[in-house]
Amino acid sequence: MHFELPAPHHILDLRMDDGARIRVRQHGDPNQPVRVFLSHGNGFATDGYFPFWRLLLDRFDVIVFDFRNHGWNPLADPPNHTYTQFARDLETVHHAVTAQLGPKPTVGAFHSLSARTAIKYAVEGGWLWDPLVLFGPPNVPPQGHPLYEVMVKFDHRLAAWAQSRPQRFASPHEMADVFRELRAHQHWLEGAHELMAQAILHQENGSGDWVLTCPGELEAGVYLSNIPLQIWPHASDFGGPVKIIAADPTVERPGIPAQTSKILSETNGFDYAYIPGTGHMLQSEKPEAIYRVMMSFLASCGLISDTP
Where does the sequence pass through the membrane (predicted)? Predict the structure, then answer.
């Protein structure tokens, strides 16, 4: 399968409060009454999630953007690559899109890093969405919880991997082969590895090498900053309805985020579903199944009148 990204209707080149640039793209049908914002996980980029968000294009005004130092965005100087800044950026992006494209009912649909950022913003007193959909938020349980030390070790392993991973490649195909070799990414749809590789690399002037847009040390820093963040919210902490859609915690070797998403949801009152047979990058594996769950949730919120 070959995925070809459509050209955006509009590109908003936004400046954050510290001068960093975030390039927001409008896709889908701008005349639809409901808008959906989408973003990505740590070290990835939203164009790589196209196998999922392509399913939204006919019935929503679709806004995609990458967090600072990822995807379409230049490296900020200084990077200010922290959850505190990510949360401020999320607010800036939402307000700028609303101001420039007009207000309408809005859904947040965020994976991993962006999901945790949306949680942080919401529980600290801000609410930007009509409903919020969180894909696999890898929150660290409180100290003393049986999974706390497991999650801490997991984040340290990811940080070590991010710092040691190759930073430059002869072509995106080389990066795609790296993805294919990772056990966690072996069940992605055909063509999804190439798509994500293209989304997270840019070609360096001079050398012609393809390099990671988000440097490994910044990616590693996010994994390590997950640990002290200590956000383990209740559904009642949010200003509106929230749905958690996560990877399968029942498989033989479930991912740690799949386990923590299940526990967070069941103990703290969240509307929750898992997608059978998926890992943490579930949007690259079973996008149609995720789409059906998300549409059912949006229908329950009164934003759409029918489900697939």
Answer: none
Strand order in the sheet with 201-203: 168-169, 210-212, 201-203
What's the CATH class of domain 10-144+231-300?
alpha beta
| pLDDT tens profile 103-162 | 999 999 999 999 999 999 999 989 999 999 999 999 999 999 999 999 999 999 999 999
> Domain spans of the chain?
10-144+231-300
**Full-prediction pTM beyond 0.90?**
yes
